[in-house]
Amino acid sequence: MRLQKITDNAPPASAGRSYQDACGAAHALDLVGERWALLVIRELMLGPKRFGELRADLPAISANVLTQRLEGLEAAGILTKHKLAPPVSAQVYELTPWGYESEPIFQALGRWAARSPRHDPTLPFSAVSLFLSFRTMFDAARAGDLTATVGFVIGAHRYRVVIGGGRLTAERGDIDAADLVFSGTAPAIAAVVYGGQSITQMQTAGALEVAGDLALAARFVTLFPLPPKIG
Question: Of 5, 135, 205, 209, whose CB count within 10 A is highest?
Fold first, then answer.
């Protein structure tokens, strides 16, 4: 009886829309099952962003829908908003510690969906998507004893990937000490890592610049094998 009372009195997770199902997966969908919600979370996985940055990285979302999703995710305790310290004083959105714990969901979905023959890798691909894919697809056995810092310049932003001890980290940050730097769009970098394009082809096309250890570049792009397609 006590369990029934708690269930009856529990408020719905989002604006009255709930599966009314005690399964944890069902409640997860109550929290993040609205269209665009998961992608908003994804775009915050490497740190806080302004509203305009989120819109730029999710070009198909409307301002109204983005506002609704941010409000819903904040109400659910998945993200928070705050102002940066002066002189910036801009409002940003950032995942809570619990929000950051959702990364394995994206990794599992990414590995699973990459096996679909209907997956279209030519669609828009954000920088955060690229670096989350590196975290997901990294093959420690292929990396072996490799130790390296690889920098990336994508638009106005800098990112670094650090490999060592069979592990990989990918984050925003300074790239001055990088052994190698890729400069280009996220889709261009993904094309050489996942799409079978050679670094030379992309350089000749003017889509990618590579500075530093070219042998490392050739090895780096082989460290993220995709799972086999179904069928």
Answer: 135
| Buried-exposed string 39-70: b where 16+ CB fall within 10 A, e elsewhere | bbbbbbbbebbebebbbebbeebeeebbebbb
Q: 224: which residues sit within 8 A by CB, 6+ positions away?
A: 133, 134, 137, 138, 139, 193, 194
Q: Which of 101, 116, 149 is the last residue of a domain?
A: 101
Q: pTM for the whole thing?
A: 0.89
**Of all helices (H) and strands (E), which one includes residue 147?**
none
> Measured between alpha carbons, how far is 112 from 107 in angstroms, rounded to an integer?
9
For Cα atoms 123, 34, 58, give the angle at the middle one, nearest 5 degrees.
Answer: 35
pLDDT digits (tens, 9 = 90+) for 95-149: 999 999 999 999 999 999 999 999 988 888 999 999 999 999 999 999 999 999 9
Q: How many structural domains are present in the chain?
A: 2
Based on the fold, state whether residues 119 and 211 are members of the same structural domain: yes
| Residue in this structure with the two tokens 């029934």, named with its chain if needed | 4
Look-up of token digits 């962003």 = 49
What six digits make up the tokens of 125? 């691909």
Count Cβ atoms within 10 A of the Cβ of residue 21 and give its class: 0-12 exposed, 13-18 middle, 19 or more buried.
exposed
